[in-house]
């Protein structure tokens, strides 16, 4: 299953993502792009969703908009509609279920002077919906959390976990190859200001390029994502440690390396197995 | 004065007497009368005057060389102006636009330019001159026809004048014949036509107007051996000059050779010559004819063997193939020069192949411990990244003409430099700046000879250098808009920075931050200091790196220091005077004299002089007149005359110095001073030259032509002169700035470790030690110090990372016990700190002692083998002592009470917080804490498990899909596996799994009671209590504090509105209720859920209104009863061991307004003392019985409740309104 995608495939993939309805897009895409791996598709969909939310979240959650949503919600409750009210509202409105639920909770718990409740309270309630004093809202919220793959405590835990899992996997693979390295926590203890996931203590060469560090990214690398990382992390590593390698475990768009200009940062979708080591025998 | 030279040259005084006189001042009788009219000092000014004499002799001819002033802008290098300082005014008829000092300077780079056309590659007429040029001899002599090619004949340009062809015999002139041979047959007709035309011209004596009329035709005088007049005189003159040059009497080595090459390549059109002859009658001059000039030049160049040994192969090649030289001294060119050339090529330096282009992060100097505070560290992280970003942006954009650095980067630079106005940040930024500067500044390299020659551009270079030059010029500076990258106008800044160095200059200018400048200055100074005294110069590439690094640092130091004094204008006398008075007491940032002196004594002139010269060449005119400079310059002149170095080193030093002496601002009178007048105290200082140190000046392998050319880029002008000549109008000024770059990592200049503090009084032991090292090889001392330093650093690291964390951890633990045992000490932190400090010091000392044990073996391996055993022992002892001293110093400086205070206080605060939060504390992450977990990749990945559970729950609720008991059991097993046999489970994930599994089981209980048995519930609860043990201590420490509502955030929420709503959806209510009850009971039994929580939850449930669910209401109330019953049976034992509630009676339903009896029966253990019994309604206490009080019963009046009080039995009447 391919994880490295050409630019044209990626743009047609994105087009289909835009066209499809929000729910269950991955299954549909699987049929459209059977050659691509499921993880890649999931990732692309998730990233599209996050991008969409980044763009529209502010607009959709102004106090006026939330007020309207809340009214509709309370109306539906008083009409004793079937459970899943918030889910239906989410489909209609475009906010992902968990974000919608959060807005509704904020509104529900708003203080007497109409200010928002404390953030900590809201996240506690999101984490453990059983604590919500309104049983209908609690249940509705719970349904939303189950449905949302990008936002909400469950989805976030899963996402966080997957990043960490791949980091651990990378470490283990490196250990298996007998590469000596320091990982993030070591570096932090040593007081480094920027800490790649892996800093090779003895550099290795991959495809004719020397690499000094490795960054693991459990997602799909498209240009926007990659540019973001370049700016925040990868260039910083390059500045400090020289050329390195970034692994997008769920694939990436071809020719991404071109935007680095003269700074060498390799991109792969797995740990390359053709590493050349420094000769250790004197 | 001129008469002296005339007498000398035309007379027959043996020159040997003149030479002796020049060398040691002995006046032979033969020359006595010549010198009668002269002053004492003439011996020292003689060379200078000689140089002037030659210039005078050839001046009228040189004047003619300057044909087309309008072309000069293009021709003369935009980067550098060359002036010949002269005592007499040698001003030109057409003053060079570049000569700022008016008549005092002469633009020497005068190129014969033929057509003033715009350079245009697409236009064939851009390459016309060679093809159209014709050469004439002087008018009265026989003329020679030069074949010409048509203007528009584009053929064979590549081969034209190719250097690879053997030079044509002298009689047919030069490479121009080649053109004819190679010319395409097609153009022959046209050529013939032109030839005819030429012939016509030749039959008529060349007239000035002829040149003007046929503006595209060129004629110039071709030198001929036969027409050389006054050969003997010329020989004598040549001998004089070469003696002065080779004995370093003439202080402008660079300039003299430049001048000689100029004479060699002189081209004068016969027409002009004729005019000039008529006007000045210059034929009487010794160098009044082209033939004489070339002859003189060739003879002199021939004798300057020393120089040619050190120039680069391309220059030599040019020289070898110069047709005039070949004509005038063929045996030299074909003999020695060729041999020299072939020997040089093999020696070409291999540039170090470095690929690292970034400044590496050095944890020793760059990590958090090198900063005063976290915020400072974080800010510098940003600064570092922004700096690199700015540099990258510049690199990408600097070649774009329309890009303006000030517009594009000024804001960014200013914000990054002053991001945090703190000395630590400035210092770090300055260090980064310097490192990056050294990193990239070394990339400015001369053309790699081999590469250039073999590539396609190289072929162009050999066939048509001019085209190559224009190509380059076009690439580098597009015609319309050369970007003014400099902040000021181009003319404003006289300080030349090439290539990437421009970035750093502009960075400083744009940043405009005085603080940064100051730090940068200091940093550069310390860098120069370190490198100048650096010992790692034995290696050739290392040495080259150091020399260049020093030059770059000196250049920027000079820039920082002299930039404020730079002026684009020529300063009028009085202004100059005022300025110099103002700066009379200004102190130089760097004590050059002491550097020079030290270098002289240690034999390191070759390392020091290049950067000193670089520094001084950037000095402004006023600076040269300052008294502080006077002594520096005197020293330099002295060194030029007297220093004894190996040839290559000497050449580097002298060429550098002569370049400095040629600076327009240089006070010339100094050069004429005698050795005595220079009052240089180099000799008197200390004659004992330290022989232990490697004498860099004496080594023969360090300096090679490529390094010389790198250090003295102006040497390229020699080659340019020759190349221009070879290709008439070609000038490859671009060559100096090579596109081929080489990367060199900077030498990291760390602060030299501060020596161990020693008491002021020198003990005998110390002086013994000093003497010990004094008499040992210098390497011994270095080794001992190095070993001690490294060892101490290791011990310190060990202390920092091992000992301190361990002891602090212990202390934190004891802090906990203190809290629990209510120790009597008032300020535990203070006393603990004191104790901790002592412990750390003791442990550190012992660790240092154990580390010292390994010194002996280390030193034995490192010290010279031939050291006597006792000497080695002494070294070991000294090293141990040093190590110990360093460690102790560190401990005293860093291990203080304050070091631990913070840690302990934080811990204390954490403990306090924990006490406050203990109810909410959910155990997590304890999974991996205790045992090292062996990773089992076969278990489910946490993210996968989360996804799976989520999907299952969703399916059960929404799609009512069945989950079998088998599946539930498997899920339990895999969750257990994931939690306990994986290393990649984060606390957040663990918590999420807790929540999900609980939700899953509860929902299964509700929706599919048939697939859940009580065994399943028991198994799960058992799993939870294992994976998420509740903290018993938290229960024990529970006090009567009131919890804020909603603070109870435990996962195990069985009785919340949401759960009840779920329960209400159950299709088999009774089974579901039973299962949930079992779940609740199990959770309570396992201690995961507390009685109080259940109570609270129950109360919250009752408070809810359940309007629309009448039928469910029954369940609810029934269930409420059931719950209380459970609490009665299970709950109390959790609270207190000795107490047991034996009976509990509360009616499930009551009539509105009727009385209700609430009954609670309990039995206490025999010794147990019961404190109180309390009744609550909705969190509000309404009845209290205190067993020990005199009036045990307290009833609180609450609306709707009247309490009827009787002894030992509480009767509550509740009036429901």
From TrEMBL, chain A:
Subcellular location, record wording: Cytoplasm; Nucleus
Domain of life: Eukaryota
Annotated InterPro entries: CDIN1
Coiled-coil portions: none
Pfam family, any one: TPD
Keyword Nucleus applies: yes
Entry keyword set: Cytoplasm, Nucleus
GO terms under cellular component: cytoplasm; nucleus
Main location: cytoplasm
Protein name (Swiss-Prot/TrEMBL): CDAN1-interacting nuclease 1
From TrEMBL, chain B:
InterPro entries: Codanin-1, Codanin-1_C
Polar residues compositional bias, start-end: 93-106
Pfam families linked: Codanin-1_C
Domain Codanin-1 C-terminal: 699-816
Transmembrane segments: none
Location of the region described as Disordered in the Swiss-Prot/TrEMBL record: 93-112, 732-760
GO BP, one annotated term: chromatin organization
Record's GO cellular component terms: nucleus
Superkingdom classification of source: Eukaryota
Protein name: Codanin-1 C-terminal domain-containing protein
Taxon lineage: Eukaryota, Metazoa, Ecdysozoa, Arthropoda, Crustacea
């Amino acid at each position: 299953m391919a994880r490295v995608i050409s630019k044209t495939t990626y743009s047609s993939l994105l087009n289909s993502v835009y066209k499809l309805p929000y729910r269950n897009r991955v299954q549909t895409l699987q049929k459209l792009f059977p050659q691509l791996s499921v993880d890649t598709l999931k990732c692309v969909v998730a990233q599209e969703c996050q991008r969409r939310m980044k763009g529209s979240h502010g607009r959709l959650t102004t106090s006026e908009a939330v007020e309207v949503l809340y009214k509709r919600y309370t109306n539906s409750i008083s009409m004793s509609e079937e459970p899943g009210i918030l889910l239906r509202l989410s489909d209609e409105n475009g906010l992902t279920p968990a974000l919608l639920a959060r807005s509704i909770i904020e509104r529900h718990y708003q203080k007497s002077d109409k200010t928002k409740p404390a953030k900590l309270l809201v996240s506690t309630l999101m984490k453990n919906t059983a604590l919500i004093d309104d049983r209908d809202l609690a249940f509705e919220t719970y349904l939303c959390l189950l449905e949302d793959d990008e936002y909400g405590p469950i989805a976030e835990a899963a996402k966080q976990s997957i990043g960490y899992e791949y980091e651990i996997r990378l470490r283990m693979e490196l250990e298996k190859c007998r590469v000596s390295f320091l990982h993030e926590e070591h570096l932090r203890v040593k007081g480094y200001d920027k800490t790649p996931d892996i800093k090779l203590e003895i550099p290795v060469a991959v495809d004719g390029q020397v690499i000094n560090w490795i960054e693991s990214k459990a997602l799909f690398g498209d240009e926007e994502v990659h540019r973001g990382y370049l700016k925040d992390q990868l260039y910083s590593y390059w500045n400090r440690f020289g050329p390195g390698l970034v692994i997008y475990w769920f694939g990436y768009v071809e020719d991404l390396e071109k935007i680095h200009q003269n700074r060498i940062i390799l991109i792969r979708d797995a740990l390359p197995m053709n590493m050349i080591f420094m000769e250790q025998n004197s | 004065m001129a008469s002296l030279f005339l007498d000398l040259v035309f007379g027959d005084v043996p020159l040997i007497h003149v030479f002796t006189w020049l060398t040691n001042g002995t006046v032979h009788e033969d020359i006595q009368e010549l010198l009668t009219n002269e002053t004492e000092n003439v011996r020292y000014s003689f060379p200078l005057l000689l140089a002037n004499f030659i210039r005078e002799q050839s001046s009228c001819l040189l004047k003619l060389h300057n044909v087309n002033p309008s072309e000069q802008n293009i021709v003369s290098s935009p980067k550098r102006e060359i002036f010949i300082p002269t005592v007499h005014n040698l001003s030109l008829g057409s003053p060079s636009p570049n000569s700022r000092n008016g008549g005092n300077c002469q633009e020497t780079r005068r190129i014969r330019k033929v057509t003033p056309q715009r350079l245009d590659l697409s236009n064939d007429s851009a390459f016309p001159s060679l093809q159209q040029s014709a050469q004439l001899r002087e008018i009265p002599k026989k003329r020679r026809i030069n074949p010409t090619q048509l203007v528009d004949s584009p053929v064979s340009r590549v081969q034209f004048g190719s250097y690879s062809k053997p030079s044509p015999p002298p009689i047919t002139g030069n490479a121009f014949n080649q053109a004819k041979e190679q010319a395409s047959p097609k153009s022959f007709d046209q050529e013939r036509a032109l030839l005819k035309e030429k012939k016509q011209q030749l039959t008529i004596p060349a007239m000035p107007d002829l040149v003007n009329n046929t503006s595209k035709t060129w004629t110039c005088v071709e030198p001929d051996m036969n027409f050389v007049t006054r050969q003997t005189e010329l020989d004598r003159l040549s001998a004089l000059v070469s003696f002065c040059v080779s004995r370093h009497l003439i202080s402008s080595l660079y300039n003299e050779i430049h001048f000689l090459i100029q004479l060699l390549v002189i081209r004068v059109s016969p027409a002009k010559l004729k005019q000039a002859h008529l006007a000045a009658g210059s034929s009487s001059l010794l160098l009044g004819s082209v033939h004489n000039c070339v002859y003189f030049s060739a003879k002199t160049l021939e004798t300057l063997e020393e120089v040619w040994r050190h120039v680069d192969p391309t220059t030599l090649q040019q020289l070898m193939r110069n047709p005039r030289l070949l004509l005038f001294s063929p045996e030299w060119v074909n003999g020695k020069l060729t041999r020299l050339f072939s020997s040089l090529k093999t020696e070409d330096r291999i540039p170090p192949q470095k690929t690292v282009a970034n400044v590496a992060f050095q944890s020793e100097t760059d990590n958090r411990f090198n900063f005063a505070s976290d915020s400072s560290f974080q800010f510098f992280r940003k600064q570092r990244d922004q700096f690199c970003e700015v540099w990258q942006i510049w690199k990408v954009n600097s070649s774009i003409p329309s890009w303006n650095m000030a517009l594009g980067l000024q804001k960014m630079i200013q914000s990054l430099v002053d991001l945090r106005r703190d000395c630590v940040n400035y210092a770090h930024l300055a260090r980064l700046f310097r490192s990056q500067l050294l990193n990239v500044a070394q990339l400015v390299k001369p053309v790699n000879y081999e590469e250039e020659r073999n590539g396609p551009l190289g072929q162009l270079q050999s066939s048509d250098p001019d085209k190559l030059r224009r190509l380059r010029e076009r690439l580098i500076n597009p015609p319309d808009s050369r970007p003014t990258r400099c902040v000021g106008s181009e003319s404003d800044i006289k300080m030349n920075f090439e290539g990437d160095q421009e970035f750093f200059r502009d960075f400083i200018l744009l940043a405009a931050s005085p603080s940064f400048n100051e730090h940068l200055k200091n940093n550069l100074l310390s860098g120069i200091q370190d490198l100048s005294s650096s010992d790692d110069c034995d290696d050739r590439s290392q040495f080259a790196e150091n020399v260049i690094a020093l030059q770059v640092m000196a250049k920027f130091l000079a820039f920082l220091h002299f930039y404020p004094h730079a002026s684009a204008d020529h300063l009028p006398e009085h202004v100059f005077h005022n300025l110099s008075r103002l700066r009379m007491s200004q102190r130089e940032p760097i004590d050059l004299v002491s550097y020079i002196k030290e270098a002289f004594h240690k034999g390191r002139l070759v390392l020091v002089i290049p950067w000193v010269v670089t520094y001084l060449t950037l000095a402004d005119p006023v600076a040269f007149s300052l008294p502080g400079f006077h002594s520096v310059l005197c020293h330099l002149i002295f060194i030029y005359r007297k220093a004894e170095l190996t040839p290559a080193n000497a050449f580097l030093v002298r060429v550098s110095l002569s370049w400095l002496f040629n600076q327009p601002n240089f006070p010339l009178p100094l050069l004429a001073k005698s050795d005595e007048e220079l009052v240089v105290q180099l000799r008197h200082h200390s004659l004992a030259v330290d022989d232990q140190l490697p004498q860099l000046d004496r080594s023969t392998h360090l300096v090679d032509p490529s390094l010389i050319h790198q250090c003295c880029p102006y040497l390229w002008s020699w080659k340019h002169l020759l190349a221009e000549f070879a290709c008439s109008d070609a000038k490859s000024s671009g060559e100096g700035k090579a596109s081929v770059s080489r990367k060199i990592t900077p030498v990291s200049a760390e602060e030299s470790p501060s020596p161990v503090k020693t008491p002021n009084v020198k003990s005998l032991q110390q002086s013994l030690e000093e003497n010990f090292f004094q008499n040992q090889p210098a390497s011994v001392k270095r080794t001992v110090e190095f070993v001690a330093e490294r060892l101490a650093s290791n011990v310190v690291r060990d202390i920092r990372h091992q000992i301190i964390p361990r002891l602090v951890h212990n202390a934190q633990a004891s802090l906990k016990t203190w809290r629990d045992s209510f120790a009597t000490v008032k300020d535990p932190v203070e006393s603990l700190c004191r104790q901790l400090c002592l412990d750390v010091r003791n442990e550190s000392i012992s660790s240092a002692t154990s580390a010292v044990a390994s010194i002996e073996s280390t030193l034995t391996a490192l010290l010279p083998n031939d050291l006597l055993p006792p000497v080695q022992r002494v070294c070991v002892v000294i090293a141990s002592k040093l190590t110990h001293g360093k460690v102790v110093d560190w401990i005293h400086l860093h291990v203080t009470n304050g070091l631990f205070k913070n840690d302990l206080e934080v811990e204390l605060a954490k403990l306090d917080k924990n006490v406050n939060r203990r109810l909410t504390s959910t155990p997590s992450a304890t999974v991996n804490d205790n045992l090292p977990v062996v990773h089992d990749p076969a278990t489910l990945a946490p993210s996968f498990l989360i996804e799976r559970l989520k999907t299952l729950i969703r399916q059960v609720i929404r799609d009512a899909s069945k989950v079998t008991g088998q599946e539930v059991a498997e899920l339990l097993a895999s969750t257990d596996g994931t939690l306990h046999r994986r290393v990649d489970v984060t606390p957040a994930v663990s918590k999420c799994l807790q929540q999900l599994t609980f939700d899953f089981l509860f929902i299964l209980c509700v929706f599919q009671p048939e697939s859940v048995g009580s065994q399943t519930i028991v198994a799960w609860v058992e799993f939870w209590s294992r994976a998420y043990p509740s903290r018993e201590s938290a229960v024990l420490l529970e006090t009567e504090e009131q919890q804020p509502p909603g603070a109870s955030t435990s996962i195990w929420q069985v009785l919340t509105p949401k759960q009840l709503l779920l329960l209400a959806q159950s299709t088999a209510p009774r089974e579901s209720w039973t299962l949930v009850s079992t779940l609740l009971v199990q959770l309570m039994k396992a201690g995961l859920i507390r009685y109080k929580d259940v109570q609270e939850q129950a109360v919250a449930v009752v408070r809810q209104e359940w309007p629309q669910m009448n039928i469910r209401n029954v369940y609810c109330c029934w269930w409420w009863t059931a719950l209380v019953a459970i609490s009665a049976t299970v709950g109390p034992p959790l609270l207190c061991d000795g107490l047991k509630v034996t009976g509990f009676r509360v009616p499930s339903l009551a009539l509105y307004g009727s009385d209700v009896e609430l009954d609670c029966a309990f039995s206490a253990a025999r010794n147990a003392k019961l404190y109180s019994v309390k009744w609550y309604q909705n969190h509000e206490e309404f009845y209290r019985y205190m067993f020990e009080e005199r009036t045990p019963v307290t009833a609180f009046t609450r609306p709707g409740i009247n309490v009827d009080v009787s002894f030992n039995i509480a009767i509550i009447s509740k009036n429901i309104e």
